[in-house]
Design goal:
The chain is globular and about 85 Å long. By secondary structure, it is an alpha/beta fold. 27% of the residues lie in helices and 25% in strands.
Length: 672
């Protein structure tokens, strides 16, 4: 691959090497976020006393066009050749101001941003005098670094017009389809034998009560037939190397033990298979054979042998007319080169087995919301007619318990709201009442979270027209009546301020959503951090919700956090658009914050190679030199900090820049 460098070096009067620094400090009021806490006039006066500062400007919103024009005019007129903006977080607007410098003919890396909002006024609102002193510290330290900044060159790399989508639920399917419709080649990798994800398990969708299968099945079929989409099902990504535009991906495709090209899905093998085991798709509420298709509408609609349960009796092989059975099938290693990667691996439903007060796994008639979903499905274990597991009869009373696994700080649970539980519980209760109008249905909740379009109306209809009884209070304990297997719930009605005890024939636990069990593996492979709740972290929660801090890698759907189907699809389309924009340009800029090595000082101890988390450093034996791949390096600084010879330095964070910041901060910290 050829790397092309775009020279964005300095122009005369705008930061040329060796030129005396002329620093402009631009103070942003950020409305009242900053100016409402500290005196901007005092900060202005202080900034003017700092070395190399030639101009200080205040403006209410420096990120606006008018604010940016103030900076541009000073650059073009030769007033300044270094720029500091004291405002919000660099995560928010550093790209904005760097573009401002670039458009004015100045090297964009002669810029420093002092965060006096998130790191100061937002946390010191009640201490304005102390906040002012902290703001002075931020500006003084930024000036010290800016005095030592140097122009840097941007590097451009080619981007392969091929995308990898990991996870083929509703989000992954929409990403793949949108990219393929823009004529990009897409490899869609799915861990299970079929695409469709959790949405394929659902019966109806709220608030419109549309048939879930009627929505997702045509999408699955369209993806399966699209000439630009290569479905790699029953497979897992095991390794990702490379960098934006040039990722190398290794995939392990598990053996089906059925030749997918020969299988005609006749089903003769299923009829003779003597092995019966639980069907994961039906949440263990229905059995399947050792050779199976997960559900009737599966794509690809081909059989797979579950070798963990197969006894290899050979009966399926004897009756298979296309001779598709292959007990000697082996895993296959697939290697791909792609330009962009979109992670859409979805979620796991919370498993309430270990939460003993609710009795799941101990009491037969306590089931989860996803199990209820399968019972309501027309192709589910009960063909759409929910029954009690204990006796197979339709319950005349039922209770839904909300926030199971969510909004709970106990060990093993999650403090966040899973967003969909209130709505899917009301949907299921409404569906059951439509079939059994005489049934008594209770819903024990903390707060009803009906946040989406049409959701509040759905809630009102459930209460008013379907007479579902809502009780505000978390259930404390659940017991079983041994005489009839009914379930007794004890709780407190916090509106009426009294304890309640309800006996019902079946309980549905509205379990929340949590990160997939393998999310840490995915996080490490992609080089994408996780948030405190375990989901993958976006580059910015508001401005870049589908991007990550790893260039060329995007996220969509519940891998980023709990969300309903419309939000998952919207985010999928955003991720597809971002990836397509990158691939359509054909090349991408690499920020020059990478580390550089002085081989004259290097002792060849090679400790940096083992420490580099991105695999960017290598030892070239023929040249007897250590080299750093500039595109792979993310500028974390680990190698520079560990090098015993000080042979490695990091662009934009060189020793003289860091020490200048420390030297200007320490005297004040010591009270000198």
């Amino acid at each position: 691959m050829e790397n092309e460098k775009e020279k964005t070096g300095p122009v005369q009067g705008a930061g040329a090497p060796g030129e005396e620094p002329k620093i402009g400090v631009y103070l942003c009021h950020c409305g009242v976020n900053i100016a409402g806490v500290i005196s901007m006039d005092k900060l202005d006066a202080y900034a003017k006393t700092l070395p190399n500062v030639v101009k200080v400007v205040q403006y209410k919103f420096m990120c606006s066009d008018l604010g940016q024009n103030l900076i541009k005019d000073d650059i073009k007129n030769g007033v300044v050749n270094r720029v500091i903006v004291a405002a919000c977080s660099p995560r928010m607007h550093e790209p904005t101001f760097r573009k401002t410098l670039r458009s004015a003919g100045m090297n964009q890396f002669l810029f420093e941003q002092a965060n006096i909002r998130e790191h100061n006024t937002w946390v010191h609102m009640r201490q304005p005098e102390k906040a002012l002193e902290v703001a002075k510290d931020h500006v003084r330290i930024a000036v010290a670094k800016a005095s030592n900044l140097e122009p840097l060159d941007v590097m451009k790399v080619k981007v392969a017009p091929v995308a990898l989508v990991i996870g083929a639920g509703v989000a992954g399917i929409n990403v793949a389809k949108d990219l393929a419709n823009q004529n990009f080649q897409v490899h869609l990798v799915e861990k299970t034998p079929t695409i469709g994800g959790h949405m394929a398990q659902l019966d109806k969708t709220f608030p419109t009560m549309d048939c879930s299968a009627c929505i997702i099945t045509p999408e699955m079929s369209a993806v399966g037939q699209h000439p630009k989409i290569n479905i790699i099902n029953y497979a897992e990504v095991t390794d990702i190397t490379g960098y934006v535009g040039n990722f190398h991906v290794t995939i392990n495709k598990k053996p089906h033990y059925v030749d997918q090209s020969k299988c005609n899905s006749c089903g003769g093998c299923v009829d003779v298979c003597p092995v019966i085991t639980e069907n994961e798709f039906d949440e263990g509420m229905k059995d399947r054979k050792a050779i199976y298709i997960p559900f009737p509408q599966a794509i690809p609609n081909k059989y797979t042998i579950d070798m963990d349960h197969c006894i290899q009796c050979g009966l399926c092989k004897e009756v298979c007319e296309p001779h598709a059975i292959d007990f000697d099938d082996k895993p296959k290693k697939i290697e791909l080169d792609v330009g962009t990667i979109i992670a859409s691996t979805g979620f796991d439903a919370y498993d309430p087995t270990d939460y003993t007060p609710y009795g799941f796994g101990r009491f037969e008639n306590v089931i989860t919301g996803l199990q209820m979903e399968r019972e309501l499905s027309s192709f589910g274990p009960t063909m759409g007619k929910p029954v009690r597991p204990s006796d197979g009869k339709a319950p005349h009373s039922m209770a839904f318990i909300q926030c199971v696994g969510s909004r709970n700080c106990q060990v093993g649970m999650h403090p966040y709201c899973s967003r969909v539980c209130c709505m899917y519980a009301m949907k299921q209760a409404r569906q059951y009442k439509e079939k059994h109008p005489e049934a008594e249905i209770y819903m024990l909740y903390m707060d009803i979270r009906a946040f989406g379009k049409g959701y509040e109306e759905f809630y009102e209809i459930a209460s008013r027209e379907y007479e579902i009884q809502f009780i505000r209070g978390r259930a404390s304990e659940i017991y079983e009546n041994p005489a009839n297997k009914n379930v007794i719930i004890r709780a407190e009605d916090t509106l009426l301020k009294r304890p309640v005890e309800i006996e019902v024939e079946m309980v549905v636990l509205s379990v929340g959503l949590e990160p997939r069990e393998d999310v840490q593996t995915i996080s490490r492979m992609l080089g994408v951090a996780q948030t405190g709740d375990g989901f993958l972290m976006e580059a910015h929660p508001k401005l870049r919700p589908v991007d990550t801090l790893s260039d060329g890698i995007f996220i969509a759907g519940c891998v980023q956090g709990p969300k309903d189907i419309p939000d998952a699809v919207a985010q999928a389309k955003g991720a597809a658009s971002a990836a397509a924009s990158l691939m359509a340009r054909g090349e991408v800029e690499i920020e020059p914050y990478f580390s550089v090595i002085n081989n004259g000082l290097c002792s060849k101890c090679l400790s940096c190679i083992d420490l580099c988390p991105y695999g960017a450093i290598s030892f070239e034996k023929l040249e007897h030199e250590v080299k750093i791949n500039e595109a792979l390096c993310k500028g974390c600084g680990t190698c520079a900090a560990a090098c015993p010879c000080s042979a490695i330095s990091q662009n934009h964070f060189r020793e003289r820049q860091i020490f200048a910041m420390i030297d200007t901060a320490i005297p004040v910290a010591n009270g000198k």
